[in-house]
Each structure stands twice: as structure tokens, then as C-alpha cells.
Design brief:
15 helices, 20 strands, oxidoreductase, 5-stranded antiparallel β-sheet, FAD-bd_PCMH, 3 domains, 439 residues, alpha+beta, binds flavin-adenine dinucleotide, Vanillyl-alcohol Oxidase, Chain A, domain 3
């Protein structure tokens, strides 16, 4: 009996194959469209458990789709599309119950009237599930930490089809692993997250021309070092994209404070001769978020990311050199420190807590670029990444054992592998930055 026939009998009206619109939705993700054997779209936790136990017992891979912005297209096995699990509920203590398929833009909108928010990613359409299991580097990361730092509890369906309530008391090791270990340990059907105050924000952007990038980089670093936890910022170096978009450094900023406080903090940047445009004003947290492009742009991004323990002169010089090369290059520096760094390295699976910034550098090449060019551009990006430590899986589009090993220090990865062996010894959940079971 085929998997589709069997699951259709066990879960009437919930299992879909080619030709069904639910199949098409479930197999379509930001990165493309796959050809899985079956898409199951459960409505209840018990239905999730039934589908998982069946696929795991047959040794099939189980891909979990929440917001669809992290999964790569799946060409065999089962996709569990959690689209029906999109609850957003908040209680008087600011504890928020989230379904994994809720989108962060909707979460921000639902919490806004209470002056609350959850520092999540910077994109509205990204899903709760993938981001909350992977880490969550958001706009207010220096003020409120990673999204996983606000996680209090999850409901988890394991590969055996067991439904667990996982928190720091009930299953401390599993709860540790779920905060940064991604979708390796089962299907999360509910998250409980502590929201934080996000009212009274002021922010916006400063654009610079390309005349003196090194000075902008150093000034940004000094501004961020002098600013407290309340000051959050990313610096992006954009390549030119036509006459309307000449490229250059862009600094995005958010502060919980007043506009005059913000202008005082930013004075060294605002005084630079290369300032081209300043746009600073009171802003709602939800308005800091951006809309995602409809799918992955048709380019290859050649580079990677890493945590910078120190934004050193050497690192900034390497960044400026990578940006100045002939190939269009994008660089993003996300300021960390603050609340992000006050969490102990072994408190969650994201261990690089001493980082001053997360650095992302990519040459932007046509999909069919000559291999020699790709290799040369990769070397240029690697010169920057070599000055960082580890990497953040959420910003890594590819999957390999090498990438997983770069995401976690060796002791963290070994600990994750032991947890994996306890809850998913057959590695059913392997459509991710895969953590192989220990042993
Ligand atoms: C345009 C864009 C912008 C982004 N911006 C940011 C950002 O600002 N900050 C940041 O930190 N990250 C960012 N990311 C990365 C993002 O956090 C990850 O790609 C994340 O996995 C997306 O979550 P999702 O639910 O949409 O993905 P999905 O594709 O649904 O899931 C991705 C993976 O997560 C796992 N997973 C998802 N849901 C569950 C679940 N309920 N149970 C078990 N496993 C599950 C699965 O392994 C799955 O393969 C961005 C990604 C994109 C495409």
C-alpha cells in the first residue's frame, strides 16, 4: 500500500498527493517547489502524531513546514504542513501562545495594541516555527536577546508519536536543545513565548554614498559600542542596482527612547560628509519589519556568515575590501552584545554569545556563472568569514555536515547529538541543518 493510500485511510481528508491544491501549497517553499510523496495537513496534535509515527516507522524522512521560509524543496518522503496551526493568543502577563505557522508580521500586529512585541526576524512572512527553533536574530536583539531567549515552553510530537510538554522543568535537556537546535527533535505544535515592551521606539535609516565606506564602518562600530542595550542597528553595504539605487552603506536603527536621544547617539554618523539621506522618526515595532520577496531571487549568493567576537579594524578592512571588488557584493553587519551576550553560552544551543556582531557577506552572481568566477568570489567572501567564529544557520541557505559543524562549538554539537539520539534515533527529522544522533 502506498504511503498516500495508507495515510489517507488513517487521516481521512488530511493526506494529499499530486493534483490537490493542498499538495501544491505544502510542497512550495521560499526556496522553490519540491516533489514529496505525500503532504499531510493535520488539524490536531493527534493527527500530527499519527502521521509522524507512520513515516518514522517506515524510515521515511519527515519535513516540517511552518512558514516555509527555511525548508529546502523536498523530493521524497512526507511533508507535514502545519498551516492550520497558526494561533496567536496573549494573556495578561504577556505570555503569548503561538502556532508554528503564524507569521511574525501577524504576531507583531496582534501584540501592538498592548505595547508588546517579540524580537523576531526582520521579515513579516517568516514563520514562527523555523525561526523560533533556529535562534531568531531580530530587530531588538540587543535589548531583548534572541527569540529563543524568550521561549518558555513548547508542545512537541516526537518521532515515536509521543506528545510532550517541554519546558525548563519537565525536560531540561530537550528544552535546551530546542532553543537553537532547529527542527531536529520532533514537530513543535505550540510555542509559549514571553513578550516584551516595545512601545516608545524611534528608528529608521541613514543612507551614505560610496565615497568613504571605511570611515562609515568605523563610525558605526564606535556608535554601537557607545550605545547601550537600547540601541539596535544593522549596517548593510548594498551593491549598485541601477540609476535609482546607487548602492552604498545603509544603517538601520531602532532605539527605545526619544528622537533627540537617538540623534545624540548617532551624531558621529550623522556628521559624516558621505551622508546622503536621513530618515529617523518614532516607529511602531511592526513597521520595522519588511516584506519578503515572493521567492528566492534568481541569483547565487556566494559567501556565508559568521559571529564576530570583535569588530576589529582588520575585520572592517576585510569587509571594505570585499565590498570594493568588481563583483556586486552585499554585506550585513548586525550589532549584537547587550541582552544577547548576557545569556550564558551553555544556556541554549546558540553558544556564540560573546559576539559583537553577526557578519554576512555574499557576492551576487548569475545562477550560471563560470565555476572559476564562483571560486574566486568565494575566496573573497571567505577572507571576511575567516575573521569570524561559527555561523548562524538561519542565514545559511545550504545544508551539509560541515555547515552544521560550523553552527555549534564541538561540545555543543556533541550535547545536541546526545539529545537527538534520545528522541529521534532513526533521524526521521533530517530535512534541516541536520544533527546526527550520537552513538
Ligand atoms: C526572507 C527571509 C528573511 C529572514 N530574516 C531572518 C531574520 O531577520 N532573523 C532570523 O533569525 N532569521 C531570518 N531568516 C531565517 C529564518 O529564521 C529561517 O529560514 C527559518 O527556518 C524560517 O522559518 P519558517 O517557519 O518560515 O520556515 P519553514 O521552511 O517552515 O521551516 C524551516 C525549518 O525549520 C524546521 N521547522 C519549522 N517549523 C517546525 C516545527 N513546527 N517543528 C519542528 N521543526 C520545524 C524544519 O526543520 C524546517 O526545515 C530569514 C529567512 C528568509 C527567507
Amino acid at each position: 500500500m502506498s504511503l498516500l493510500t495508507e495515510l489517507s485511510e488513517q487521516l481521512p481528508g488530511r493526506a494529499y498527493g499530486p493534483g490537490a491544491s493542498e499538495f501544491d501549497t505544502g510542497r512550495t517553499v521560499f526556496a522553490g517547489v519540491g516533489e514529496p510523496d505525500v503532504v499531510v495537513r493535520p488539524h490536531t496534535v493527534d493527527e500530527v502524531a499519527t502521521a509522524v509515527a507512520r513515516a518514522a516507522a517506515a524510515g521515511l524522512s519527515i519535513a516540517v513546514r511552518s512558514g516555509g521560509h527555511g525548508l529546502l524543496p523536498v523530493d521524497d518522503g512526507l511533508v507535514i504542513d502545519l498551516a492550520e496551526f497558526d494561533t496567536i493568543e496573549v494573556d495578561d502577563a504577556g505570555l503569548v501562545t503561538l502556532g508554528p505557522a503564524a507569521h511574525w508580521g501577524d504576531v507583531a500586529a496582534a501584540l501592538a495594541s498592548r505595547g508588546l512585541g517579540i524580537s523576531s526576524g526582520d521579515t513579516r512572512q517568516v514563520g514562527v516555527g523555523g525561526l523560533l527553533l533556529g535562534g531568531g536574530v531580530g530587530w531588538l536583539v540587543r535589548t531583548h536577546g534572541l527569540t529563543i531567549d524568550a521561549l518558555r515552553e513548547v508542545e512537541l510530537v516526537t518521532a515515536a508519536g509521543e506528545v510532550l510538554t517541554v519546558n525548563a522543568e519537565s525536560h531540561p535537556e530537550l528544552f535546551w536543545a530546542l532553543r537553537g537546535g532547529g527542527g531536529n527533535f520532533g514537530v513543535v505544535t505550540r510555542f509559549t513565548v514571553q513578550a516584551s515592551p516595545v512601545d516608545g521606539l524611534v528608528g529608521g535609516s541613514i543612507h551614505f554614498d560610496r565615497s568613504d565606506v571605511p570611515t562609515v564602518l568605523r563610525a558605526w562600530r564606535e556608535v554601537m559600542r557607545a550605545g547601550g542595550d537600547g540601541l539596535n542597528s544593522s549596517l548593510m553595504l548594498m551593491p549598485p542596482m541601477g540609476p535609482e539605487m546607487p548602492g552604498g552603506p545603509q544603517v538601520g536603527i531602532a532605539l527605545r527612547g526619544t528622537e533627540s536621544e537617538l540623534r545624540d547617539l548617532l551624531a558621529p554618523l550623522l556628521a559624516l560628509p558621505s551622508v546622503a539621506k536621513v530618515d529617523l522618526a518614532p516607529v511602531a515595532y511592526g513597521d520595522l519589519l519588511e516584506d519578503a520577496p515572493p521567492g528566492r531571487p534568481p541569483f547565487q549568493f556566494v559567501g556565508g556568515n559568521g559571529f564576530a567576537p570583535e569588530v576589529s579594524d582588520e575585520l572592517l578592512e576585510a569587509v571594505a575590501a570585499a565590498y570594493a571588488r568588481d563583483v556586486p557584493t552585499m554585506v550585513l553587519l548586525r550589532a549584537l552584545g547587550g541582552a544577547f551576550s548576557r545569556v550564558d553560552a551553555d544556556a541554549t544551543a546558540i553558544a556564540h554569545r560573546d559576539a559583537e556582531a553577526l557578519v554576512i557577506v555574499n557576492g551576487v552572481l548569475p545562477a550560471d556563472a563560470e565555476p572559476e568566477l564562483v571560486t574566486a568570489v568565494k575566496a573573497g567572501s571567505d577572507a571576511v568569514i575567516a575573521l569570524t567564529t561559527g555561523s548562524y544557520g538561519g542565514f545559511e541557505a545550504n545544508r551539509s555536515d560541515e555547515i552544521t559543524a560550523s553552527m555549534y562549538p564541538p561540545a555543543t554539537l556533541e550535547r545536541l547529538r546526545r539529545v537527538k539520539a534520545a528522541v529521534d534515533p532513526g533521524n526521521s527529522f533530517r530535512r534541516n541543518h541536520n544533527i546526527r544522533p550520537a552513538g
